[in-house]
Write a structure and sequence with these properties.
Layout: E1 3-4, E2 8-9, E3 14-18, E4 23-29, E5 40-47, H1 63-66, E6 67-70, E7 73-79, E8 86-95, E9 100-109
Parallel strand pairs: 3-9
Antiparallel strand pairs: 1-4, 2-3, 4-7, 5-8, 6-7, 8-9
Length: 114
């Protein structure tokens, strides 16, 4: 199972709270998922869309540069999002041994105050 550092949990599952103006990197750690002689090879990430969303959650540049693999960690950089919206981020990985798996988490957009 992948670990999400800094995630919160509710009755639906794991989520992160993100300010709409933040440009933030999130990490999925697949260490516990991989067998001893396997490694992450590729990943594909998609972000749910909300009809009529004026400032949707998105990659700052594009998926090719904003989603990276380092060892067992998939890093996903995201920006924007409309206050009050909840987006689902879907990450599908393929390992060097040819296994595939998918993990989903949510991003709740709300103003973050100190």
């Amino acid at each position: 199972m992948a670990n999400l550092t800094g995630a919160k949990k509710d009755n639906t599952g794991l989520y992160f709270v993100k300010d709409s103006t933040a440009n933030v990197k999130y990490g999925l750690d697949f260490t516990d998922y991989l067998s001893a002689n396997d490694s992450l090879s590729t990943t594909t990430v998609s972000i749910s869309t909300i009809s009529g969303d004026a400032s949707p959650l998105a990659f700052p540049t594009n998926q090719a540069t904003d989603v990276t693999i380092a060892g067992a960690l998939v890093s996903i950089r995201l920006r924007n999002g409309t206050n009050g919206n909840i987006y689902t981020v879907t990450c599908t990985v393929t390992t060097a041994n040819g296994d595939t798996d998918t993990r989903r988490f949510r991003i709740k957009i709300e103003d973050r105050l100190l």
